[in-house]
Amino acid sequence: MWKFLRYLFFGWIVVSIVTAPLYWPYLRMVWVYNTIIAAPKYDTPSNEREAKLQDLDYLSTLTEYDRSFNDEEKVAFAAAVEAIADDIDEMSEAALYLRIAEAVALADNGHTNVSYRPQYTKFNTIGARFYAFEDGLFIVSSAPEKVHTLGRRVVSIEDQPIDEVRASLRRYRGGNTVWRDLYTILILESPELLEAAGIANSSVSITLELEDATGDIERVVFEGMSRGVLEEAPSRRAWQSLVPGSFKYEQIAWSHILEAEAAPPARYLTTPDEILSYELHGSGLYIRALPGFAVGDQAIKGAYKELLADHAEGSLDYLVVDFRLHDGGDYTKSMEFARTAPKAVKPDGAVYIITGPNTFSAAIVTVAMLKYYAGDRAMIIGEQMGDREQFWAERGTSFQLPNSGYYINYATGFHNWETGCKGQSFCYTLNEMHEVPAGSLTPVIVLSQPFQSYHSGEDIVMDWIAKQQ
After folding, report:
1. End of a domain among 89, 113, 137?
2. In which element (H, E) is residue 350 found?
3. Contact 305, 338 (CB under 8 A)
4. Which residues pair with 318 in a beta bridge?
C-alpha cells in the first residue's frame, strides 16, 4: 500500500512539472491580480472620532493595492486623506462619506470608487428619482406625495442651474464623464448629501425648479424622508430607474412615469432579468446582451449559444446586439458569442452594436471583441459607454473600512481594448490570452433619446436601424 502511494506521489510530481506551463498563467493571475487583503487590526475605538480616524488610517493604505493611481494621483490622494483627518471634528457622516468618495475618485478610474450603496440605503431621500435624457434631467419616479412632479424637467436645485450642480458633483466619482454623471445622480436625490456637497443649505429639504411639458416652471420643496431599513437591499443599478417596478425592496410605494401613462416601455426595457431575443424585419435578429454571471438558472455562455442555434452561418442580413443594460460581469462567458455571432451574418451584412452610459466593464470587453470579429460589418451606435477603451479593473478580497463599513472598490489589472496591452506592466493575464485591438469604441452614429420619446415607449436606436433595412 505504501509503495503504491509513493508511486502515486512521484507520479503527481512528474505530471505537475510537465503540465506546469499550462496552468502557470492562471496561478500567476491569482497571485498578481487577486490580492488578499488582511482585515485591519485596530483596538475597539473609544469614541466616534477615534473610529473615523481608524477608518482614515486604513483608507490611506488603498494605493498599496490599487494600481490605477499614477504617482501624481497617489500624492494627491495622501494629501486628501490627511485633509479629511484635519477636518474630522466638523464633519457630518454625509460629509465624511463624500470626502472619502472624492479622495478615492482622484484615481480617475471607473472601477476605483467608494461603494455608492450608502447613497441609497443610509442617507435620506427626497422621494423622487431622476434620470438624464438628451434634453435634460427628469423625474421618472416619485413617492405618493410628489406624484404630480412625474415627467418634469429639473431646471435648478437650490437656485443653482442643474448643469452646474451636476458638473460640481463629478468630483465624487472616478471614471469618464458619462460614468460620473450616471452615478452622481444618486447624490441629487438626498438632501443630506447635497448639504454635505455644499449645494443645499439644509439636510432636511431642498427646493427644485421644475418645468412641465408646457414650459411652465414651478418651485417645489422636497422634504427629506427616511429610507427605512434597507440593509438587505440588492444593488441599485442606474438603468433600473428607467424600468417600472425595479425597486420592490423599497418601503415607499413609488409611482413611475411609465406606469402612470398608457404607453408601455420600449421593448429593450422589458423583463430586464430575462433573456430577450427576437426576429427582425428583413432577416435580422435582435439580442439583448446578457450581464452578470448567469440568467436565472442558465449559464450565460449556454444562453448565448442557444440564441444562435437556429441561425446558420451567413443566414442573417443583419444582427443587433444591445448592451444598454449590460453593466458588467465575466467577459470570459461571452467571448465565444463575440467570436461566433458575426459568422451568422452575411459577408455584406451588418452587425449593429448598441451602447449607452450603463455599458461598463465586461460589457466593454464584449463590445470590443464583437466589433473586432465582425470586422467591416460592425457599427457601434447609441451613446458613449460608461468607461474608456483603456481602464483598470479586477480585484481580490474586499477593502472595507473597519468602522463605517464603507467598501472601496480597487483595481489591479490593466485593460486596453483599443490597441492591446500585452507586454505592458500589469496587463491582466486573461487579456494577454484573449485581447483584440478593436480600435475606437466611440459610437459612429450618436443617438441619445429625448425624454418624450422615452415616455412614449419609443426606441430611437431600433427605429434608426429599421430605416436602414
Report:
1. 113
2. strand 345-355
3. no
4. 284, 350
3-state secondary structure of 273: coil
Q: Are strands 205-211 and 160-161 parallel, antiparallel or unpaired?
A: unpaired
In a domain, 407, yes or no: no
Kindly state whether residues 187 and 303 are assigned to the same domain: no
Mean pLDDT computed over every residue of the chain: 92
- 450 and 318 part of one domain: yes
> Could you tell me how far CA 340 lies from the centroid of its own chain?
26
How does residue 363 score in pLDDT terms, banded at 50, 70 and 90?
Answer: very high
Q: What are phi and psi of 357, to 5 degrees?
A: -55, -30
Q: Which range marks the domain in which residue 290 is found?
A: 267-389+438-468
If pLDDT is split at 50, 70 and 90, which confidence band does 293 have?
A: confident
How far apart CA 364 and CA 440 sit, in angstroms, is: 11
Q: Are residues 193 and 66 in the same domain?
A: no
Give exposure, 192-218, as e/b (b: 16+ Cβ within 10 Å).
bbbbbbebbeebeebebbbbeeeeeee
pLDDT value of position 460: 98
| Global pTM value | 0.93
| Residue-level pLDDT at 110 | 98
Q: What is the pLDDT at residue 260? A: 63
Q: Is the same domain home to 105 and 232?
A: no
**Cell numbers at 429, concatenated:** 493575464
- Spatial CB neighbours of 141, under 8 Å, sequence gap ≥ 6: 128, 129, 150, 241, 254, 255, 256, 257
- Structurally, the chain folds into a number of domains equal to 3
Q: In this structure, is residue 19 part of a structural domain? A: no
Asked if residue 271 and residue 346 are part of one domain, the reply reads: yes
Q: Both 126 and 231 in a single domain?
A: yes
DSSP structural state of residue 331? G
Mean pLDDT value of segment 375-402: 97
Same domain? For 104 and 180 the reply is no
Q: Residues 129-174: pLDDT tens digits? A: 999 999 999 999 998 889 999 999 999 999 999 999 999 999 999 9
C-alpha cell at 332: 470570459
- End-to-end alpha carbon distance in the chain: 73
- Quick one: which of 20, 33, 16, 13 has its CA closest to 429? 33
